[in-house]
Request: fold
Amino acid sequence: MHIHILGIAGTMTASLAVALKKEGYLITGSDQEKIYPPISTLLEKADIKINNSEINNNIDLVIVGSSFSSFKKSKEEFKKIKKLKIKYISASNFIGQNLIKENSILIAGTYGKTTISSLISWIFHQAKFNPNYMFGGESLNNFSATNISSSNWSIVEADESIHGLDTQAKFLYYPVKFLLLTSADWEHKDSYSTEIENFNSFKKLITNLPKEGLLFINSKGFQTKELSLYSNSKIITYNSPNSDYYLKNIKIKTNYTLLEIKTPRNILEIKTNLIGQFNFENILAAVTVADSLKLDQNKIKKAISTFKGVKRRIEKIYDKKNILIFDDFAQSSNRIESTLTAIHSHFPQKNIKVLYQPHASFLQYKESLKDFEKAFEIASEVVLAKLNYQNGVDKNNRTTAKDFINIIGKKLKYIPINEGIIDFYKQNLKNGDILINMNSGGFDENKIIKSLINSLK
Reply:
């Protein structure tokens, strides 16, 4: 069977392409002309050709990724697909129909989805369940982001955004039996025009839960308690002293952290190499799911102790000359604050600096900056890279560098030219400093930090 993936260079679609090829399908794909690592490397290793296949009736099925409408070439190909009456389906719909199994675990919420879903997948994998799974990141355990198997278990990162051919949230295309919800903040303002619309999307997901299912909620998550009122299934809570699962004690050691987790039947001691309170809460979430589903506690502990994390989630990429550089995905105010707090808790004597590359689409709107006043409080210095605007954003409502400066203050420096940023750090990065690169973009956005590291070497 020949499957063509339109918009193949997305995080999800690229890993799906590799998994489908392993299953024996003929896979081709198309996207923008320039594809960068790690996506280009992933597809090259799997010998999947990009932009090298003609759209014709030899194709049995087209999977349409969420980013296809962003590029002229993809839109032209889609017109031809419809003209030739080739069968097509959105990537979300395909995942829902082919990857989700009877025992479906969905990980939803504003934050933590990727780390939690990859960690639960790792736990089930290490426990020999061979689950179907998909998460939107690159594991540092050399663990593929998508797996297709004959197991009746599936673990999927479930996003609330609406893109491409989708007419509703991605997670509403996925059948669900067990659902973990971290929070329900209104983050995707490009998908929902009001906070009520965002809330209703999560509400619909929860009402999809069967009576025999389970709903796991973060007791501290935004609107999680309100949303849990719509559940017909049993509710299990985590992350507060009166929850079913709770972080009773955290002991930070030199090379690891020991977590003491209160479960309904005992205190579970778990070692981890991950750092930061939000990562500890991600581990707590994974333990809540795995333990509630009766996985062996010793296997849970062993899997977590060997879990290295997800690329670009407080990933240490440079440690020389008494200078540390971390790479992180943080864009929203709560994620920025969590990342900085995590670094500071492990390196309290270090001077923390931030390179902030505002890549996320919601940052184009002035309203998105209202919570940023305290986001960078721990940082001694913030460099703001070039602001990127997409078509359709009203000039009167879109953010400017001045907006960032007014909210964050004098510690922020706006340097819109890449070479200028590199030169700035060459002159100002000193022994004892920690630099955190925060951006959610791809290869182009990481050119800055890679060039800087090369110059330090």
Q: What stands out?
A: The chain is about 30% helix and 20% strand.
